[in-house]
């Protein structure tokens, strides 16, 4: 099983550029989410989705857009990159289900540098 | 404000000893609490979930306790090994969304 796959693994952007971080999962999970991880700050929730066509904001949504057209994919778009968005980005998926087994599966991360 | 607090200082212990990590939270009433392990350059990996009506849960050398009165969870690794060296994150479900909110994590270093 591939699990949660993120691409690219590394990216350097210039200030003002836009790009999309890709996230795909093959576990048929309903819930997907994006986090950023900065030194000393832990994982902070950017956006999340509880199913295709449904998205919501997390703790730090500004500067990011998401959409969920399929169960498998949950791309994160940076509209106009800023140095403050330099971070490691993680995508996660889970399927609470009847048992409320909310184990989240994470991708390997995308290390983004904005210069 | 709502907080999830983990000791930011690294925990250094000798191989074979029991490591105990702490997660405190304020202003939440979570239905459950999770612990994850994160190795450098990797995504977090789920370890254990404990529900609000459970006092303790065990999995192999891992033990988690959950005290909803103290708003605290303790995470124990018995007979620790150098391979247990990693950052350990606690996470809560905030607001019933089933999307975990994480603490900042505590680094554990097990010395041979």
How is this structure best described in words?
The complex is a heterodimer of chains A (115) and B (112). In chain A, 0% of the residues lie in helices and 50% in strands. Chain A is mainly beta and 115 residues long. Chain B has 112 residues and is an all-beta fold. In chain B, a hairpin with a 4-residue loop joins strand 7 (62-67) and strand 8 (72-77). The N and C termini of chain B lie far apart (40 Å). In chain B, 38% of the residues are buried. The model of chain B has no long low-confidence stretch (mean pLDDT 92). Chain A binds chain B through residues 4, 31, 33, 35, 40-45, 48, 50, 58-59, 90, 92, 94, 96, 100-109, and chain B through 8, 31-32, 34, 36, 41-46, 49, 89, 91, 93, 97-105.
| Largest inter-chain contact set | A-B, 28 and 24 residues
Number of strands of chain A: 11
Report the principal-axis shape of chain B.
Answer: globular
Q: What does the radius of gyration of chain B come to? A: 13 Å
Estimate the global geometry of chain A from the Cα principal axes: globular
Q: Give the termini distance of chain B in whole angstroms.
A: 40 Å
Q: Percent range for helical residues of chain A?
A: under 10%
What is the string of helix and strand elements of chain B? EEEEEEEEEEE
Uncertain runs of chain B are: none
Overview features:
heterodimer, A: 115 residues, mainly beta, 7-stranded mixed beta sheet, 4-stranded antiparallel beta sheet, 0% helix, globular, B: 112 residues, 6-stranded mixed beta sheet, 5-stranded antiparallel beta sheet
Task: Write the SSE topology.
The complex is a heterodimer of chains A (115) and B (112).
Chain A: E1 4-7, E2 10-13, E3 19-25, E4 31-38, E5 42-51, E6 54-57, E7 64-66, E8 76-78, E9 87-94, E10 105-106, E11 110-114
Parallel strand pairs in A: 2-11
Antiparallel strand pairs in A: 1-3, 3-8, 4-5, 4-9, 5-6, 7-8, 9-10, 9-11
Chain B: E1 3-6, E2 11-14, E3 19-26, E4 32-38, E5 45-51, E6 56-59, E7 62-67, E8 72-77, E9 86-93, E10 100-102, E11 106-111
Parallel strand pairs in B: 2-11
Antiparallel strand pairs in B: 1-3, 3-8, 4-5, 4-9, 6-7, 7-8, 9-10, 9-11
């Amino acid at each position: 099983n591939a699990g949660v796959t993120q691409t690219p693994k590394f990216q350097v952007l210039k200030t003002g550029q836009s790009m999309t971080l890709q996230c795909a999962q093959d576990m048929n999970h309903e819930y997907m989410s994006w986090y950023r991880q900065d030194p000393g700050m832990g994982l902070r929730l950017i956006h999340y989705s509880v199913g295709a066509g449904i998205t919501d904001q997390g703790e730090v949504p500004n500067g990011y857009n998401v959409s969920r057209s399929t169960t498998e994919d949950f791309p994160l778009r940076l509209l106009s990159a800023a140095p403050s968005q330099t971070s490691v980005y993680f995508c996660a998926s889970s399927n609470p289900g009847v048992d409320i087994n909310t184990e989240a599966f994470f991708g390997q991360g995308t290390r983004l540098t904005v210069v | 404000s709502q907080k999830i607090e983990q000791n930011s200082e690294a925990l250094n212990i000798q191989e074979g000893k029991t490591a105990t990590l702490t997660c405190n939270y304020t202003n939440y009433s979570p239905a459950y609490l999770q612990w994850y392990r994160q190795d450098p350059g990797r995504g977090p990996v789920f370890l254990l979930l404990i529900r609000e009506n459970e006092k303790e849960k065990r999995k192999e050398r891992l033990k988690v306790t959950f005290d909803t009165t103290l708003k605290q969870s303790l995470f124990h690794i018995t007979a620790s090994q150098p391979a247990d060296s990693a950052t350990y994150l606690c996470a809560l479900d905030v607001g019933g969304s089933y999307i975990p909110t994480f603490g900042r994590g505590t680094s554990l270093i097990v010395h041979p």
